[in-house]
Amino acid sequence: MVSEKDVSYVAELAHLELTEVERERMLKDLNSILGYIDRLNELDTSGVEPMAQVASRYAPQTGEPGERFRYAMRPDEPLSCMPHDEAMNNAPQTDGTFFKVPKVIER
Amino acid sequence: MDIGLLTVEATRTAIAERQFTASALVDAFYNKIRSEGPDIGAYLTLSEERAYAQAQRVDDVVGRGKALPPLAGVPIAIKDVISTKGVRTTAGSKILANYVAPYNATVVDRLESAGAVILGKTNCDEFAMGSSNENSGFHPVRNPRDRTRVPGGSSGGSAAVIAAGTAVASLGSDTGGSIRQPAALCGVVGLMPTYGRVSRYGLIAFASSLDKIGPFGKTVKDTALMLEVMAGRDPKDSTSAELPVPRYSESVGQPVRGLKVGIPGEYFGEGLHPDVRGAVEVAIQDLAKAGCEIVPISLKHTGYAIPTYYVVATAEASSNLARYDGVRYGVRASGAKTLAEMYRLTRDEGFGPEVKRRIMLGTYALSAGYYDAYYLKAQRVRTLIARDFDEAFAKVDAIVTPTTPTPAFKLGEKVDDPLAMYLADIFTVTAILAGIPGVSVPCGNTQEGLPIGLQVLAKHFDEATVLRVGHVVEHALARSE
User: For a tag site, which of B97, B171, B190, B360 has the least CB within 10 Å?
Assistant: First the structure.
């Protein structure tokens, strides 16, 4: 069971504030969804490899990882990149060169 | 002529034969979008300048009598999670309400190089998280077949524009059913390719080990024509596969005699709407008549797919969505005194309830002490679900199921019960976890007249079989109507 304290801790990790109303609702929803997720424990998964990505299902199963995932490799060469001004166009606050943010360190 | 009925092929032919110009067609579509569109709410942004410039280029090629590219002048719509350079790209979220993408997704480049005309960006659940389009940060989409009902989600806008005839084809993304489920609910065709078949470069990430881009169309052939332009290796997406791209459109109409079609018992249990069951059973008989061998099979971990999905997808989402911090792009909340407070206020104001719920769930599943119990456990069950399919495809060439257990539900019906909403994806999450391709094709209507979708699945990179089988179902339905 998730507690109010857990909700506060996880919200902090996720950089969310959440209002009192949101916290109450979150507590109820997380417990309901996690209760449903608990049915995974009906399965014995000892000795079963975790599946983190799809390519391992169809890529050759033999050879070193470097060999199996050769398709994902390319020479490490510099290519042209996005012009600075274009990259900054969406910045909420900028001095023209850098992103501006509220004070990070108190003096 | 009713432009709402145009297929990809018919559009290209009409433009090549100078029945109308690409520019006149763009005019006609914007008129239709303005008169009928607002009520449905499928478009978030219209890219008129870009559409007219592209149409003009197509008309110039026609004027010079040159050979036309495969999608010349075909008006399409793009789900707003896919980046379009110079055009607002919101992912359906208030946090990106003012974001103008500085580059194109690879699929956008490929479609435009093939002559397609982008009319605009379609509404969706925020960051593609939802099954009804009611989680859009802007406004919900209404189902063109019954405006009191949802179009499905998350690519609800992209399905609705096909059903409403306000685009000839469109792009969506599928992370748990977000192409196939809305296709079923709106009565159109939605194709989800194999993971790695289509580049994800420029797709705003939700869950990177699951996300796929795929097309919607009125016919199976239209989606095949779109896919053959979009598919193939892209150096900008290291997970895109280095495999040749077949002429998918040529598989449409190929005979299916002798194909083995598996029917998993797990998809026909309790909770399946009787009319959905009936229509899918008729379609299975049609496949048998066409010469398919119907084989009962079992996908025994089906019941564990939703819990697996909601751990894997939310864990990946919590990490992917960490980038929305109000620093580099998007909307920043005002009034914060410190950087940490600015992050919190920005994310609190910018994200909607479902996105917050999934970030919280994913962060919890990855947090110290719970990682093994939730995330690692779900990844192990994901292997079991993928193995179910490996075992099935050792015996059969394709698998046929209902796409959804019920037809389109009413707007507002499930918004207060996240778990009930998650269960709308019960038949679509299994395939996404395994990474295999699938299509949803219309296979009839309920007694109330609501569309019913049938799902065809095949093994990795066997889109051709998915399309062949899907076309037989589509063809049988057309004959019966």
Answer: B97
Check if the beta carbon of residue B354 is closer than 8 Å to that of residue B130.
yes
Residues B119, B130 contacting (CB under 8 angstroms) = no
Residues B355 and B124 sit within 8 Å (Cβ to Cβ): no
Q: Using alpha carbons only, what angle is made at residue B207 by residues B202 and B211, rounded to the nearest 5 degrees?
A: 60
Q: Is B155 a catalytic residue?
A: no
Q: Write the secondary structure of B172-195 as one string of H (helix), E (strand) and C (coil).
A: EEECCCCCHHHHHHHCCEEEECCC
- Name the burial class of residue B472, with classes exposed (0-12), middle (13-18) and buried (19+) by CB atoms within 10 angstroms of its CB: buried
Does the predicted model carry a pTM greater than 0.95? Answer: yes
Q: In angstroms, rounded to a whole number, what is the distance separating the alpha carbons of residues B137 and B172? A: 17
Residue A107 scores a pLDDT above 70: no
In this prediction, the residues of chain B whose per-residue pLDDT falls under 50 are none
Q: Kindly list the domain boundaries of chain A, sorted by start residue.
A: 1-43
**Per-domain boundaries in chain B:** 3-250
Chain A residues with CB inside 8 Å of B379's CB? 50-52
DSSP percent split of chain B into helix, strand, coil, nearest 5: 45, 15, 40
ipTM attached to this prediction:
0.93
Contact at CB, B356 and A7, closer than 8 angstroms: no
- Residues A1-43, CATH architecture: Orthogonal Bundle (1.10)
Best mutation target, B306, B323, B345, B364, to test chain A (most A CBs within 10 A):
B364
Q: Which residues pair with B149 in a beta bridge?
A: B410
Cα separation, B134 vs B352, in Å, equals 11
The predicted-structure confidence for B120-175, as pLDDT tens digits, reads as follows 999 999 999 999 999 999 999 999 999 999 999 999 999 999 999 999 999 999 99
Nearest CA in chain A to B328: A91
Q: Search chain A and give the residue with CA nearest B305.
A: A40
Main-chain dihedrals φ then ψ at residue A15, nearest 5 degrees? 55, 50
The domain defined by B3-250 carries CATH number 3.30.470.10: no
Please list the residues that pair with B296 across neighbouring strands: B263
